[in-house]
Amino acid sequence: MSTPTAHATLRGVTRIYPSLVHALGPVDLDLRQGEFFSVVGPSGCGKSTLLDVLAGLSAPTSGTIAFEGRPVNGVPDGVGVVFQEDSSFAWLNVQDNVAFGLRRAGMEAAEIKRRVEYALGFMGLRDFATAFPAQLSGGMRQRVCIARTLVMQPRLILLDEPFGALDQQTRLLMGDELLRLWRETGATVMLITHALDEAAMLSDRVGVMSSRPGCFIDLAVTDWPRARDSRIVSDPAFGLLTARLWSSLRAESMKAIGRVA
Amino acid sequence: MTRWIDNLAILLALLGLWYLAWWQAGDSAITPPVQTLKFALYLLGSADFWPHVWATVLAFLYALAISAVLGITLGLVLGLHRFSGEVFEPILASFYTIPKVTLYPLMLLIFGLGLSAKVAFGVIHGMIPVTLFTLAAVKNIPGVLTRTARALRLSPRQTALHVLMPAVLPEIISGLRIGFALTFLGVLIGEMFASQRGLGFLIINGINQHDVARTTAVIVIVVTAAVLANGALLRLDRHARHDV
After folding, report:
1. Is the domain of B118 the same as that of B9?
2. In principle, which of A154, A210, B51, B136 could form an S-S bond with A80, CB 3.0–4.6 Å?
3. B166, B185: one domain
4. pLDDT digit string (tens) for B11-47?
């Protein structure tokens, strides 16, 4: 199964919580170098658990996880995570939020300044550099969190429903920004989302998860060109893909809300 | 600008109420504003007055320092150790609501007359809010902040110093603000009942000797100092929250 270009691999990964809730797996997955991979699944299916174990934020109950060929034990260097909840630091202004990780890593000031300025410009935050999170909208705060991850120059970016709390228009535009970020950095991206259209619009491949315990039940390849944006939603192939994802997911979603398909 | 006008309006309203109280109760209970202010200025200029101020300030500073150190330490311990927190929080909260004046005879027997009783009385008033605020702050740290710290590969020490501490600081400052006011209250009450020195003593002594002018003037001085201090702390509080 393992391909020479696999950037991260999961083999037989399960996660069972101390409460004996079987949340995940077994899951096998190869994330290819530089691909945009999305995970969709019914609520409570273990999508976030999958991200947590891949990021090294929690250990799997069984199975192995490797990033760039080395086993994952704690968050590896080169992995960046963006969470669903607002994780901006309320006591720091925007530029200090963005510089936070670099300062803790002890990078020299000139390089921090250069990277922060680039990230602020890239995420459209330059005019808000000295603003505090309380003065920003939810979308802007999430941009701050993305910029804070971006400056670390991660080679694998994991996003856990980062636009879940945003309105539909903002989500589409943030999707464009994410594509731009993915193209410019060349990083591998894994996006957890509950929005099928978001997954269909952004990804090279979409993994569909079953209801708990979450396993992959379908892998859809989109064949979009690398230079794409949200206008792809008017492509007939986008409609077909979204329909396919929904037909894979419908029965599982009904299980998740306690109905028989 | 509007805030300035608001403050002026409040000041005028208070002066109005003061006149009304004087008009109703008469010279035997309260002196009117201008007369009181003159007497207050005379007191502030007299050498006999300042030893009482320093006695109160000294007791207050001791009590505040003890309230802050014990309150923050206890709050951190109870907040970090979930089980002890769950056991002690309701106990502290109910202790907070009992009228602590009833404990005063007990405190006197334990500490005797003088500075230590005043300080102890200030501490039992001021420490609990500091503890409760600190405990709540630690308990309510959003989990995503510690997850972010781990995702950014921070060491435990960096996490404590650069994430947890700044996250709880605004709440602790709010607790200190409440604790400040209550510690002051406790010290003044202590001075009223068990001291021959201090502003609380001057107030109760003025009442006992029916020296209405002195009593009213000291009350005005104490209230003004408390309001100014609270205003300054409120500013610090807002600043720490980046509430602009």
Report:
1. no
2. A154
3. yes
4. 899 999 999 999 998 888 888 888 999 999 999 999 9
Nearest CA in chain A to B241: A91
B159: closest chain A residue by CA: A104
A20 vs B61, residue with greater confidence: B61
- Tell me how far apart the alpha carbons of residues B95 and A134 are, in angstroms, rounded to a whole number: 35
Task: Tell me the C-alpha distance between A40 and A47, whole Å.
Answer: 8
Nearest CA in chain B to A82: B148
**A162 inside 8 A of chain B by CB:** no
Q: Which residues pair with A221 in a beta bridge?
A: A205
C-beta atoms of B244 and A132 within 8 A: yes
Cβ separation B153–A75 shorter than 8 A: yes
Same domain, B129 and B146: yes
Mean pLDDT for all residues in chain B: 90
User: Are A81 and B243 inside 8 Å of each other by CB?
Assistant: no
pLDDT score of A169 = 82
Domains contained in chain B, number: 2
**What domains appear along chain A, each with residue ranges and CATH number?**
1-78+156-261 (3.40.50.300), 83-153 (no CATH)
Query: Dihedral angle at the C-alpha atoms of A183, A187, A192, A196, nearest 10 degrees?
Result: 30
Residues B23, B43 within the same domain: no
CATH of the domain at B45: 1.10.3720.10
User: Range of B88's domain?
Assistant: 31-241
Name the residue with tokens 């309701």. Answer: B90
Set of chain A residues whose Cβ sits within 8 Å of the Cβ of B142: 85, 87
The Cα–Cα gap between B155 and B36 comes to 60
Does B11 lie in the same domain as B54?
Answer: no
Nearest CA in chain B to A86: B144
Question: Distance between CA B82 and CA B77 in Å, rounded?
Answer: 9
- Whether residues B11 and B46 share a domain: the answer is no
Do B38 and B101 lie in one domain? The reply is: yes
Mark whether B112 and B158 lie in a shared domain: yes
Q: Which residue type is seen at A159?
A: L
Residues 198-257 of A with CB under 8 A from B: none
Among the partner-chain residues A83, A90, A92, the one whose CB lies closest to the CB of B148 is A83
Asked if B244 lies within 8 A of A77 by C-beta distance, the reply is no
As averages over each run of 10 residues, the pLDDT of chain A (261 residues) reads 71 87 86 93 86 92 91 91 92 95 93 94 91 91 92 94 82 87 92 89 91 86 85 87 88 74 51
Is residue B179 within 8 A of residue B68, CB to CB? The reply is yes
Question: CB neighbours of A148 closer than 8 A, spacing ≥ 6?
Answer: A88, A97, A98, A100, A101, A119, B152
Other beta carbons within 10 angstroms of residue B215's beta carbon come to 22
| A101 in reach of chain B (CB within 8 A) | yes
Distance of CA A212 to the CA centre of its chain: 20
